[in-house]
């Protein structure tokens, strides 16, 4: 499953600063059972808007991680809260339909 959220920088806050914090928190979160990686994308034409996509074995695995919040991760998130606006877009299943170019 994929957990997807959007991050908008408040005026004057560089996305690179948020990305540094995201990396620190993500390195910890990715140690949880069922974590399969995470990516941070910059929106074309809107450099102060980022999209995070975290991949998990299952919703249950992500829920288990969320049920045991780590103080370090919570602190990193709290430190960023005054500089960014985070909107959770949702939890999505793995693709049911896809088209892949031929080799």
UniProtKB/TrEMBL annotation:
Q: Which Gene3D superfamilies match?
A: 3.30.70.100
Residues annotated as domain ABM? 4-66
| Magnesium is among the record's keywords | no
GO MF annotations, alphabetized: monooxygenase activity
> Any idea which UniProt keywords this protein has?
Monooxygenase, Oxidoreductase
Pfam families, alphabetically? ABM
InterPro entries with a match to the protein in the record: ABM_dom (IPR007138), Dimeric_a/b-barrel (IPR011008)
What does UniProt give as the signal peptide span?
Answer: none
Protein name per the record: Antibiotic biosynthesis monooxygenase
Decide whether keyword Hydrolase is in the record: no
